[in-house]
Each structure stands twice: as structure tokens, then as C-alpha cells.
């Protein structure tokens, strides 16, 4: 409950707002920006000049508009000089990407991460190696202005420590700090839970654009979640909010890596599906889930039954979330895309029997639009957060 | 993503902010207000003068401070001229209150609402009658500036329609509109779900002051919930968020009034407890629950067992919410106060076995500080919302 902002605060806010528009919407005319921001064109011109000088945007004549009169210049994101590093630590892969303003992936590296192998130092070394390889290929005046990572574990809001990541063997691991040291760019590395980061990605660049209330469910070996409430990611007291994978849907059910029983991720995770389908556990991840969905499609009764049972638990978990959140959209990401596509009838049926009509009436169920890139795209958005909040401050620190 | 505010918007914002400070914190010195709002004393003086002229606050010399120098005048909420009406429609009672700035209950009326009796027109007539009685006792220049009601049913964000209130027999009932007509004050009546409204009350005037992430669980015959995320009440797409009573904790369990089975309110509600304890269902509500808790305390084994079983389901529901929200506080209100006090060990034990350590480590479990008044106090806060957002606009409309 503070008083109103100063003129300088307003200018910084406006610079960040303009850059955010262009970053998220792509090339936008000055006239459009003036309309969206409620400012006159001369103010937009001055703001754009500052951002252009900082190498964050550039102005261009638009393509033929077909309208009479002088066309309004178009402001575009400029990705030649400034970029962020985005990382994704999944159960079976490591990804690093160099991402420019506007969210364009300029370069990327990926490697398979053997299950049960790779302690934190090896993960950090591999990611930092990728970053160096990618930076070596840039122009000499190119600068990295942010870095962030998605990881399949519980992460606090501020410290980059992975408190609990049973599927990758991390416990109280100071991952952000170690990666920051190894990158040696003088930048902190923001770390986010894969579900949370995927939610940010789908909301800013995926199927959830424009949704203020959405739930993103990310299936890897376990199930992570990211929940957007009134436009903001739900973090809770310390940033651990969104751990929907450990909601108990089946009291006394399958044991979970967290020590409890019947958690959503124990009943719906890859292992439950493989066991129920009688599939070998040699195949893992997306391929394993897809093999069950394919087998069910070909008429394999055991695979069909496995999908139905897992789909029923998934539906119950989603139904609970619908009653609690009255969301506009639930998005199935990671391996849950394949699972949902194979068991949509069960999921919908459970939602219909176990939610209040009012809570579900405008609900949309969707699969992730960004697919396997959701986590790394979301990590890039985390890495851009500081630049978008105060573009010139960030650049002046680097100059 | 709009541009910064105009000077007039800033003034209105500051008037609302100052009034909100005084409304929530009580008498506050000008110096303290200046510090909290980041404004100088002359601006505070001007704002206070406007609010004083409108009859919303008054200034006084403080009591002896013991410090040297000229004391800073104290700004107090003024409740003589302006008030709001707050209503509560519970399963077995109806409450109406006249509430002044500062949240002081100036007058109240209450009646027993026979279960199964009272259709909406009778409820509306009873509440409007109470309002007239109370207004008749005020000074001639006293004005009502807002009205709101809490009700045990699902309510949309904007229209005051009770979509579903099975425990009071309301379905798609235009309660807000009807009550507004019957009051004939030219004011809309904001309607909120009892759990949501109770959460607002506990956060603004109860045990949750200062908490930005809390969950309020309200037990009546069913269980309502109100969830505060990052300082804001969770509404969801259409305002139906927070229906935690219909989270399924026991798939295939007891039938629920909503049509599903094993909902939290079916397993924990008053009926389940009475049946498990073998108590007659003649006693209802708080008295009935208290009778079971008392019997358990006197060593009645069946009552103890009933409390343990119900406490276990309550704990499971809370555990799920803790994983999902990482809240700072969970508050037990309505009859859940008695239930929690009688089964705290089961509740805590379930939370310990079924939540991630990180999600629960700074969790506080508390009982409602406002007790039976939580809903009506919260309704008053809803009714004040418009006045606090723009104090002078509201008063100019009435002038």
C-alpha cells in the first residue's frame, strides 16, 4: 500500500512494458504500441529510441499495408547483440539453448542423460560446456544478460537450490550457484521446477496465451505442475507451490518416491503405466509411453486397460484441481501429451462425475503447444525476467 | 501492461490507500501513515482533510506518548456517518450486521434458520427486515455505502447468483439481485461463498493478518474453502475457485450432495462424524460436533474412533492442499475449529506422511480467530471494497 510511483519509475516501467510487448508479440507498430500502452506516439518514439540504442529492439518500415497515409514504423525484437541462456535438466536429457529477445532460439545443444548416471557436477559441467560452445560462435560484441534452468525437482523461489529431485538423485543441491560459478558470466542462474517453467512457457508462447488461470501438468518419470492464478505463477510461501504430482488420489495405493502412497505421479507415472501394460521397463520416457498408446490403438487389450486405469487416476487428479482452481485451461505436457491423447475419454468422464458444474463449464483441456521445448522456452522467459523488468539497468551493469 | 497513472489517479489511489490503512489498522498517526505510504506529511494532511470532510475519518490528539516534541495527530476511522450492511446465510442461521469504517460491528441481528425450511424469498425478506430495523436506529444523516452477503454455496464472481448451494436448497438463485431490490438502497449486493469470505476476514482481521498465502477451511454441514495466493483471493475463471470440499479424498467413498463420492465434505462433514460416532442426528451444527469431541474427551471409544477417522481424511485433504499451494497457514473455521481441536494429532500425522518436506516446513495450522463472526466480518470487507477503492467517488454518488 505505497503511494504512486515517481516519473523515473514510470519511465523504467514503460521501457520494460514496451520491450515486453515486442518480446512476446513480435514486431508491433508504434501506433499499436501507443494504443496498447495508453501513451502518445512521441512517448513511444522516445522509449523506442532508448531501447534501440541499447540493442534490444530495432525499427523498420512495415511491409506494404495497403492503407493510405504514412505507415507507422514497426518495432521488432533485436536478437543480434543480447541473449539469454536457457537450460533444461530432465530425467533423460540435458538441453542448453541460446535465446534472443523475442524468444527466438538462436542455437541449441542437447545430450542424452543416462538414467541413474550423472551427479550434479557432471550435469553442471555438461551444461556449461554447451554454453561455452554456443558463445564462441557469437559476434564479439554479443552479451549474455540472463541465465535460467528448468529442472525436475522442488526448487525454492530465491536460492536455486534443488531441495528434492528423486528422479534425478538431487537432494538439497545448490544447482543454481554451481552452474553460475561454472558459467563464469557474473550472472546468477535462476532455477525453476519443470512444471512451473512449462506453465510460464505455455502461457507466454504456447496454447495458454491470454489465459489468466491455467494449470500445466508436466509428465516425465514423475508429474510436475505449474499453476497460473490470475496471471501469476503460484509459488506459495517459499516457491514450492504446484507440486500436484504428490496430491494423493488413491489412499493406500502405489508407493511413491516421496515416501507417501497413491500420489498422482505414482498412479499415473511412466512406471505404473509400464507395469499395468506388462511392458518391459527397458524403454523409458516418451518412447515407452508412446509404445503403450500405440499398442492400445492396435487393439492390445492389456495396453488399453492400462491406459484406462491410468487415465482414470489422471482424470481424478485433474477433477480435484478443477474444483480447487476453476481454471480456464488444463494443459498436458511432456509424456502426459501422449497419455492424454490415449485416455482422453477416461479423463473427461472423471472430470464430469467429480467436479461441480460451475467449476468446469468453461474448462478447456489441451495438449502442450511447445512440446518438448516447453521447459527450455520457459527457462528462457525466467532468464529474461530481469531485463524486461528494467532493460536499461541490466545493460548499464554489463557496459 | 498499461502506461503509468495520471496525477488524478494517483490522488484517488492515495485516498483509498490511506483509508484502507486506517480501516484495517485502526487509529494511526500522520507520521506513521507518511512512513508507510512513502509520502510527505503535507500530502498526508491534504488527503486526511478530504477524507475527514467526507465523514470517513477524523483526527485527534493522541494519548500521552511520553515523547518530547509536538505529537503527530492520529487519524481514526469514523463510523458515525457511513456504514455497510453485511449478511451471512448459513445452514442454520441468518445474520445481518451494520458495520462501520474500521470494521466495528455497530449493530447486529441474528435468527435461527430451520433446516429444510426457508426458501430464498423468506431468506431475503428476513435479512431486509433486519436491515430496516437497524437503519431506523441510526442518525438521519447516516448513509449505507455498500452491502454484501456470505452464503454456503457456489457463487460467481460478478452476478450474485448462487449456482449451487445443496445444503440450503439454492440452485441458480439470483440472491444478490433479489436482496438488493428488497433493501431498496440503490446499492448492489455483492455475494461471496462462505469459505472465500471467511478467508478474507481472517486475512484482514483474524489469525492470518500479514499472511500472503493462506487456506481457510470453513465447516458448516459441508466444507467451504477460501484460498489466498500472493495476497489475493483465488477466484479462478468465473469466481468458483476454492471448492476444496469437493476434492475427492476417498475414491468410491461416501456419497456427496454434489453427486460424486468420497469428497472431503462427505468424509469430514457433520453427517459422517455423527454416523461414525453413533450419535443421533437430532443435534446439528456446532453443538453436534462439540458433543462428539466432548464424548471423545470423556473416553467414549466410538467417539474417539470417529474423530480419528474423520481427522485422518481432513489431514489428507489438507496435505493435498499443502503440496499444491505451499501455504504459510491453514486455518480451520466454523465447526472445523472443534473438529481440528479434537483430531489435531491425526491431521498433523497425515500432513507429515503425505506432503513434501519443503512444502510443509514453515506451515502453521491455526483455528479461526473470528470464530462464528468470520463470515459476517468478511462480508463487511466485501461491502467496503468499493469505498476503499475510491472513497470520494462513492460518496459523491450518494450526495
From TrEMBL, chains A, B:
Pfam families: ROK. It comes from the Bacteria. Gene3D superfamilies: 3.30.420.40, Winged helix-like DNA-binding domain superfamily/Winged helix DNA-binding domain. InterPro entries: ATPase_NBD (IPR043129), ROK (IPR000600), WH-like_DNA-bd_sf (IPR036388), WH_DNA-bd_sf (IPR036390). Belongs to the ROK (NagC/XylR) family. This is ROK family protein. It comes from Microtetraspora fusca.
